[in-house]
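pinning this so it doesn't scroll away 📌
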Amino acid sequence: MIILLVSLAATLPVAAEPEIKTLANGLTVLLDPIEGAEDIAVVLAYHAGADAQTASTAGLFKFLEYVLFNGPATKPGISEPALAIDVLEPDSIEGGSGIDRFEFGFSSKKENIVPALDTLLYLFSQERREFIFAQTDGIEYARQSTRALIQNELSDSDLLSNMAIAKKLFSREPHRPDTLGSDHVVEKVDIAQLKKLASSWLVPNNACIAIAGGFDKEAILDVVDQRFGQLPKAQNPWPTGLAVFQKPGVTRPTFLVFPDSSIPSGHMQIEIRYRGPDPKETQSYISALMLQELANSPSSRFQTAVRKDMPKGTGLQDLRIVYTPTRNSSSLSVESMLSVPSGKNPADLAFSFKELVRSTELYMIKANASYFSAAEYQSARESLLEKKMAAQGDPLQSAARMARLWSWGIASFLFQESDAIMKAGQKNVSQLADTYVQKNLEVVMVRIDPKLYEANKKSFSNYGFETVSNQNALWWR
């Protein structure tokens, strides 16, 4: 494994050891200098987003994003703030309101690092916010834009399917994985509420700034302290009694069917979703990434067995395991598209897929130490290390990765991740399959050609499937 790391490092830009500092006002500074890099990237992130909202504030962080950026953060509106950003000639921009953070960042030439930091300071300054909140036309533009996003969600089958599953899997507080929120909240919120939201959450002791690329650590740390260290520390905005998401969040296996016009004629897509490990469980987090690599390899035993043992004619497509990590609401899914052969009942096929995946293959991953070979584990480790090191060699990817780990509460994992990957093996993956599949409950979603659904509607009902539509998929409708 040491030889592997050396060979990988030889093909990528050299990164010095990252550094983590905390300023006196509570701001976390994450630094990753990359030797020889001509670009730098800066990302300012807050512990905010959907995970910080309640049912009465759901959607306000997305609304705030559109207010602050005169549109989506990745495409800032003309003329303000786009002109302030464009003078830096950014190569790439990312950010906005997500599930577990509210962030904005971009990459530029390394000589622009100080102006880039000043621009970030300006974009989120209280003085600028006060000016923007006084522009009623801009507020109403942002309100209508975010309401339009919510309305568009009603015709986006991918979003509807995802939220319908989240509504079941995280039934206690499904508004916390909902980045768009509810229309009636966005419609009624006033400027005073928006000001309070920004002043409470966009504070230095609830934030990090991540910097990666070609720069001198000590010099830039001084610049950051001079600029951002002067911001006043505020009260911690996170409520002390915030509920922890249940595991798994459902009390029995739950079955959903969604007549979906985006599914090809004669086909159905099935997803089995489990409550997955949150990244703070670092060993399980790495094990979930490892399971993805192992199972999704085209020649893996998992791929071969599931395709072979499904009924003839189903022709599984895009069979994969998907791990989606977030701070408090991670999930682990198995999904595939399949044909419905003539004369076959799609509800029966859904149960066949579920039993084959869960009760046979994932059970064997738990119970059979040789399910994946030693060579497959080695290949999975190499793939994860390559992806990690490639991200470290790209300034914006590196800065975004540091901000992401910080938002998950595991910033120091920067120094441990490679070692954790090298040590992950069969016992870890077996334990993951046991805890998060065999001892867990699932939500099963079938998205199906509407004509097939109509022909088999009674069968789905008899099997206990709940029919999903844009009238009941969202937690607030």
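📌 and the second one:
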Amino acid sequence: MKITVFASAMFLTLPLISGAQNSSSPYSVLGIGDIENSSFNRYTGMANAGVALSDSRNINNSNAASLTGLNEHFYTFEISTRYKQAIFDGAGVTAPDNKSADFAVRRINLAMKVAKRWGSSVGLQPFSTANYSYTALKNIQGTLQNVVAGYEGDGGVNQFYWANGYQVSKNTSLGITSSFLFGSLQQTESLLSSDNSTVALTTKQNIYLRNYYFNFALQTGFKINSKWQTRYGITYSPKTDLFAEYATDVTSDDGVAIKSEITKNDYFTLPGNINIGIALINSNQYTYTINAQSQNWGGLKYKGTNYELVNSNKLSIGFQHSKSERNYYNRVYEKSYFQMGVYAGQSYLKVKNVPITDFGGSIGYGINSRTSPISLLMALEAGRRGTTNKNILSENYINLNFTFSYVDLLFKGKKYF
């Protein structure tokens, strides 16, 4: 099938596409980079508050238990992209060097109903990304002399996952997402000569990361009356160690290798992560959701010069208005939907003893074709990450997300009853 060939090509090229970015994120210099908060799915326009929701047509990759809500005998294929633009202020940055932008594929997903009670999905998306560039003074050990050093970093961790949901009762489903996290981070340190005209010494450090990662999920709910129903969702990921291998290469100004070795084998610990959601749905037309997420970074005791990792939390509130009509076969289908959302929380970073906050809002619009198996979601997010302290760098960002969905019969020509 054409869709199978296309999906295979995208699975192979996604890491390359995702890595071809020119955006700069100063916070990604720490840990394994910026950990992705968006699910890049149908609920992005609702501030990603979709843990309690499921859909018969679209994939909800934020909760594996939701896969039991997919239509039987059909498969769904989705690709999500994002354009991001950021403007930085504080900490001495000035125009025009305070702007960055990028466009990349962020998620590719294939899902289907394996059996009446069993839904399954495979996908690939970034787990974290690193991309930064800055200069600083560095002291030459054993002397009082300082030299100018330039630092550049890129890379990230990818997440390949297999998610499964099983319906244990009429209203309750359980799920598990089994992932393999893999990737590398590279930091290049360039020491400039005394007159700052040439690079005297270059040190490249590569960190190779990998391990399995699991997320356990549940969805349940019940009807309140003939018009209202409520849904609940919860996901949990236990603390996980990522195995890390450090490799260092040192070269002189004329390109001669001075040192190349595996410096150490270590690990980076990801904290426990819990996400809870509640939804109220009126006549399958109006949906109100609220999500609360917490990550126990503080328990890992990570600290460095002027920063430390602390417990993070995020609260998201979303709304959706769905519009339905009848198709040529007189069957009711969802024609379009409009979404809004707001979110606020504290990130896992505390810089110079000041917490880094993240807050913003989102709107989204989705449309399902009446005559073809294609649907499109567009979602716009705008927010600010940072602090009011002008001595600390802050980021104002705009994200424009597109999710393309293709739904088709598993076996064409076969009659289903």
